[in-house]
Amino acid sequence: MRALVDGFRGLLRNPGLIVLVLVLNAAVALVAALPVASLLWQDLSHTGASTRMMYGFDYDWWSRFDHQAKGLAGDLAPDLLGTGFLWRNLDLLLRGAVPAGLFSGFTGTGAVVLGLAALYWLLQVFLSGGLLALFRAPAGGWTFRGLVHACGFHFARLLRIALLAVAVAALLFAAWRPLGSWSDHLAREAVSERAALFLVFGRAALLLVALLLLHMVSSYAKVILVCEERRSAVLAMAASLGFCARHLGAVLAQYLAVGLLGAALVLLFALLDGWLEVSGWKTQLLALALFEGFLAARIALRLGLLAGQVELEQAGERPRG
Amino acid sequence: MRRNAIGVVLAALGAASVCCSRPGPYRFQPQLLPPPAGPDAPGLPPVPLVSPRNASYTIEARLDPDKHTIAGSLVLDWRNTSEVALSSFPFHLYWNAFRNNLSTTARGEGRRRRFEPGEDERRFGWIEVRSIRRVDGAEEDLGPTRLYLHEDGDAFDRTVMEVRSARPVAPGASARFRIEWDALEPYGDPGRAGWVHDYNFVAQWFPKVGVVWHGAWNAHPFYPTTEFFSDFGVYDVRLTLPRDFVVGATGRLQESKDNPDGTRTLRFVQEDVHDFAWTASRRFRERRGRFEDLGYPPVEIRLLVQPEHEHLAARYVEATKVALRDYGAWAAPYPYPQITVVDPAWGSASGGMEYPTLFTGGASILAPRELQSPEGVTVHEAGHQFWYGLVANNEFEEAWLDEGFNTYMTSKALHASLGEPAWGRRVLDRAGWDRGRLGWPVVERSIRIPRGAGDREELREGGKVDVMARPGWTYRDAASYGLNSYGKPALVLQTLEGLLGEPTMTRVLRTYARRYRFSHPTTADFIAVVNEVTGRDWRWFFDETFFSSDLCDYAVTVEHQPVRVPTGWFEGKDGMLEYRRAPQKPPGREGAVDSRVTVVRRGEVRMPVELRVELEGGRVLNETWDGRDRWKRFSYPGAKVVRAVVDPEGRIAIDVDRVNNEWIDDDGPARRASTRWAERFLLWVQAFLELQTVVG
Fold first, then answer.
1. Is B439 a domain residue?
2. Does one domain contain both B248 and B292?
3. Residues of A whose CB is below 8 A from B434
4. B457/B412 same-domain check
5. Helix, strand, coil proportions of chain A in percent (round to 5)?
6. Could you tell me if B146 and B163 are in contact, meaning their C-beta atoms sit under 8 angstroms apart?
């Protein structure tokens, strides 16, 4: 846990990194959100539904809008409210829509969002080299130029690791289909709905754990590749596997801690979001601040975990004595 | 303890999956209902107390739960209510729909699952008549005359059998038939009857005589989409099965006798019903309730619930009471002393079906109250008792007279007692075969679905496919059958209620329900009741709706033009023409405008509509239009219209696009609403982008 705490300390010494990633994230997402705003305005203009949508929700309007929706507008649904969007994303993850709809046959959400997701995935692979190089020695601070230089330096090797992880995920999803059919059969034949529910949720939980383990191995592979300046992605993955096996308790504890922090963050967000009545410009600005604050915290958790992994790797590989 | 811990975790997850933290109101609300009309209420037809009882059955049946077979014998006492002598007698053998993949049901899409190549052997079932004899007077073996009717040309279908007697039955005379038969229960979900593990749902299970209707036999094959039609009588049924089974059935339990072979024989009796269904399972838990209210006969409610759904028992019982109370008030009170509610087993397709004095519900373990499940299906199926059960129209030929009336009253009852349901969806469920029962429910409490909205969606998308009023097997597909039997007639009746007003509509329904109790009415009978009660001819309304595939859509638009300043040649004070120049700056009120409000009929359906116009300054004007032309314009010189609403009270429930019914001058709300929702969209996309880092 000390490594994770040190990692977060290192991150907090460089808060600009969170802002940088958040700006990058928002900039890509705005490509989708701005046309949606325009579509909504055109559809709601001079209608009574506009007032109801300003203060609440007009089901009749949404039903018609959704029926006619093509492209981006098709993703506008009531589950965007509250924490519903997180459940939608979890569902998309388990359906194979991450990254970029690769394992769901490019379905689950609109092509524009999937395209942006692919772009963002690539950007994050690019950025991870610079971030890892920085977390290796966080006390020194960072410059944008230095960060981009480190990103470019490590990009090709990190991309190979990322693609390797995607290939493993592809195998995972391919293996998942027969397992899914088998558990479907068991659920269908179950005596009780309780057993069927257990099978369905158990299957989802198992896939989620498998994806997190894959994330763990690929993440440490990136750490090892950058910190130990290795060249081979395959060997880095193998080394990561060994490292995770040797330090399984510590590695899992980091994920657990970050998971708990994430849950607390979601709870806090749900409370604030439920409390905030949004209608006019001022409350919309407040809501925007809340949303971006939530996203910033989410990004901070990811970067903090990455920094903690660097700390753990460096502490784990340091000669004892 | 372990169960408690799991409960705490599930509750915490449940709290997180309810998207909005502001709690919405939920409980059965006291409602303002008209007091139920007594049997001899003035101005209403008397309530018939006894049915014609022209098809009464005495049945003995034995279930072998290991082999899933039923061996039965019955005596049918039948009376000819027609005006012609009859010597042929058709019998429905419904379970032969599952005999093979070439039956009429198995070939098509519809309510029952279509049989596909490589079908699980267990899913097939059948009914085979061992012997059929006429036993009034001299015994006559009718077996040699047996043949199967193929109205639809499917020679493999065995769902309607006909026998002929050498002795025609004269009008008003009676005949007695003795039938022995064997049957194999199908497994799971091909139809609404069958077995799953030790759960048996046994419906449409015995040879059942057709109905002499409008001077001829009416006995259609078991089409993929259609339901049933039969005559009223007294059912006296003895069921023999292993002692450890819990049994629910139509009627009252009269006797229970343990047999030396480890079985038990139960005798159920019910007068004035037109069918008999039963269920047996070792897993049932039994709960009881009682419905009592001023002006209603008391009803014992018996709930047979699955162990995993015991936490929903109170909701099942309360919803049943809602149906008994509301339908009783709006139509005529439920006359039987008991009702049995069956919570079907996992994997069975028997849920959501109605039988006399017994119905099946349907629920998920994870059942947030805001989604109104199991309440919705319970009110609906209990509500069938009042239409399918007591009025008993021909469901083959005019399904909407039951399903449509019932859907209309279900939404009305739910709206009155529970309010509008919340929007929700289930996640983490990939199966798709579970009818939406598995999966984690994500509920958005702040979004409520208005009455009729779901039906309006379907009508908008599929309303032009078929004329509503047509036999159930002639719709283009199952979706069209569903829309035209359930959603569209419900919206039409809601519209009729909007046009007549609630008190008059209640009088119409009461008159119809009382006059035609136990008597198989038709659509024409209902229209005649509407005309009689209102004293006006409403045929035009039904021509536009029941007998049409057209859509209804009224819209309103508003134009503003600056008030014209007189410019040009005008008569002067002396009568001579003089030229008036346009002033540099218009005199009078700054920016004064003329307004024109245009109401447009975009659909083909014509309805009288109201228009509410709000002028700047707060003045409100109400206009009316017969709605027959394609458009109508209303002008307001020198006044600025800030809001115009066509059908402001929402009387025309069949208007498929209510968004274009209202126009407002202010575009500010549209701007703010669009940014508000775009922000939400942005948040989701941002979170989805971050999610990409999980893999890679």
1. no
2. yes
3. 187-188, 196
4. no
5. 85, 0, 15
6. yes
* Contact (Cβ atoms closer than 8 angstroms) between residue A24 and residue B647: no
**Other CB atoms within 10 A of residue A264 CB:** 11
The answer as to whether B17 is a domain residue is: no
CA dist B578 and B570 (Å) reads 6
- Other beta carbons within 10 angstroms of residue B675's beta carbon come to 21
Q: For A83, which residue in chain B has the nearest alpha carbon?
A: B19
Distance CA A20, CA A26 (A): 10
* Chain A, nearest residue to B689 by Cα: A117
CB of A160 within 8 Å of a chain B CB? The answer is no
CB contact under 8 A, B346 and A192: yes
Q: Which residue has the tokens 């199991």?
A: B374
Listed by number, the residues of chain B in 86-105 with a beta carbon closer than 8 Å to a beta carbon of chain A are: none
Residue B18: is its pLDDT beyond 80?
no
| Per-residue pLDDT tens over the stretch A170-195 | 999 999 889 888 998 899 899 999 99
Q: Where are the beta strands (DSSP E) in B117-173?
A: 126-134, 140-141, 147-148, 160-169
Domain total in chain B: 4
- Chain B: give the shortest CA distance to residue A240, in Å: 14
Structural domain harbouring B584: 554-665
- Contact between B191 and B126 under an 8 Å Cβ cutoff? The reply is no
Give domain status of residue B425, yes or no: no
Chain A CB within 8 Å of residue B448 CB: yes
According to DSSP, residue B119 is labeled -
Q: Is A144 on the interface with B (CB under 8 A)?
A: no
pLDDT in tens, B166-176: 999 999 999 99
**Contacts with B, A 80-99, CB within 8 Å:** 80-95, 98-99
Q: Are residues B468 and B511 in the same domain?
A: yes
Backbone φ and ψ for B58, nearest 5 degrees, come out as -115, 115
Mutate to test the interface with B, among A22, A36, A42, A79 (most CBs of B within 10 A): A79
Does B642 lie at the interface with A, CB-CB under 8 angstroms? no
H/E stretch holding B445 reads strand B440-448
B637 and B692 share a domain?
A: no
User: A292-306, pLDDT tens digit by residue?
Assistant: 999 999 999 999 999
Supply φ then ψ for residue B158, to 5 degrees.
-125, 30
Cβ distance of B676 and A162 shorter than 8 Å = no
**Look-up: residue for tokens 């309303």?**
B463
Q: pTM for this structure?
A: 0.92
Residue A182 sits at the chain B interface (C-beta within 8 Å): no
Please provide residue B210's backbone torsions phi and psi, each rounded to the nearest 5 degrees: -70, -175
Rounded CA-CA distance B612/B590 in Å is 26
Model confidence pLDDT, tens digit, residues B226-263: 999 999 999 999 999 999 999 999 999 999 999 999 99
Identify which of B539, B562, B582 has the alpha carbon closest to the alpha carbon of residue B637.
Answer: B562
Residues B72 and B150 both lie in one domain: yes
B661 and B672 co-located in one domain: no
